[in-house]
C-alpha cells in the first residue's frame, strides 16, 4: 500500500471522525438547553416550540452524520475498494470506444451513487420531515422531481462530460484550460437560464398579486438601485411548509422570488426587511464576490486535475490499475470533497460575515425591528435551534446563529 493510499484513507476517516464529533457536540448543546428558551426569545418562542426545535435539530444532525458515513464508505469502496476498476472492466467488455466508454462508466457510478443516497432521501422526506409537520411532498411529486432531475443531468451533464473527455484526449497538455472554459460557459448559461426556463419545470411561478406589497417592494428596489425582471411567488407549499426568499439569475434575467409559505407567515414590513437583507447581498457585491471565488476555485481545480491526470501513481493509489480520462474525472470528483471538508470553516466564516453585512444594510433601508421579528418567526416556523454548539456553527453554519444576529440588529 503506497503512502498516497494511506494518506487518502486517513483524510476520509478523519473527516468522518470530525463530522461525528461535531454532531455529538451539536446534539449535546441543544439537548442541554431543551427545556429553557433563551431570554431574548422567551416572549416569542414557547417552551413547546423550543423543544420541537431541539428534537428536529437532533434528528437532522443524526441524519447528516449517517449520510456522511455512507458517503465515506461509498468513496472508499469505489476507489481503493476497486469499484471504479470493476465498473471500468465491465464496460470495456462492451467494445465501446472513447469517449462513449468513459461516459458509460461515469454514468454508472453516478447511478450507483444515486441509488445509495435514495433511501436516506426518502426517509428524510416522508419520515423525518413528516414527523415534524414540514413535509407536503406526495410520492408522485417526489418521483416526478427525481425524474426531472435525472433528465436534466443527462441533457446538461451528458454533453459536458463527453466534451471534457474529448478534450482530455485531443486538446494536448492544456486540455484542462479548455475544459475549464467549457464548464464555465455552461455554468453561466445555466445560471442565466434557471429563472425562466429550468426552475418553472419544478415550481409554478406567478407574479406577486398583492398590490400594496408590490408597491412597497418596488419602492425598496428603487431606493436600493436594483432592477429585476419581476417579483414572483412560487408554490413552495406543495413540497414543504418551510419558507424562503431568494434572487435568481444574472444580468437582465434576474428575478426576486418569494415562497408562498413566507408570504403567509410574515407581515408586509417584515417581508420588506427580509428583501432588504437579500438586496444587501447584491449591493455589497457579495454575489459577485462569491461568483468570482467559485470561478477561481473551478480554475484551480481543473489545473490540479490536469496535473494529477498525468501522474500514474494517482490512479494506482486510488484503486484504478489502468489510467484513463474518465477514471481521472471520477477519482478527482470523489477525492476533492474529502479534502475540501477541512476548508469549510473558512468558507462558512466568509458567508456569515456577508450575512452580518447584509443585516446592517437591511437596517439602513428598512426597520431593524421588522427584520428581527421576521427572523424570530422564521426560526420558530422552521424549528431552527436557538442554542447551537459554537464549533458546529464554525463548520456548518452559513448564517450566524439567531442570538448573534438579533443582538447585533438590536
Task: Describe what this molecule looks like in 3D.
- The structure is a single chain.
- Helix content is 71%, strand content 4%.
- It is mostly helical.
- It has a domain at 1-124 and 311-410.
- Strands 1-2-4-3 form a 4-stranded mixed sheet.
- The radius of gyration is 23 Å and the shape is globular.
- 29% of the residues are buried.
- Overall, the morphology is globular
Count of helical regions: 16
Total beta strand runs: 4
Strand content: under 5%
- Which class do the helix and strand fractions yield? mainly alpha
Oligomer: single chain
Query: Mean pLDDT, as a whole number?
Result: 92
- N-to-C SSE string, H for helix and E for strand: HHHHHHEHEEEHHHHHHHHH
Q: Ranges with pLDDT <50 over ≥5 residues?
A: none
What is the CA-based Rg, rounded? Answer: 23 Å
**Termini, distance in Å?**
58 Å
Overall helicity: over 70%
Largest sheet report: 4 strands, mixed
Query: Biggest sheet: strands side by side, in what order?
Result: 1-2-4-3
Summarize the structure.
The protein has 410 residues and is mainly alpha-helical.
Defining key terms:
single chain, about 400 residues, mainly alpha, 4-stranded mixed sheet, 4 strands, globular
Fold blueprint:
Elements: H1 3-32, H2 47-78, H3 83-92, H4 100-131, H5 139-170, H6 175-198, E1 205-207, H7 211-224, E2 231-234, E3 245-248, E4 255-259, H8 260-265, H9 268-283, H10 286-308, H11 312-317, H12 325-340, H13 344-365, H14 368-381, H15 390-396, H16 402-409
Parallel strand pairs: 2-4
Antiparallel strand pairs: 1-2, 3-4
Helix pairs in contact: 1-2, 1-15, 2-4, 3-4, 4-12, 5-6, 6-10, 7-9, 9-13, 9-14, 13-15, 14-16
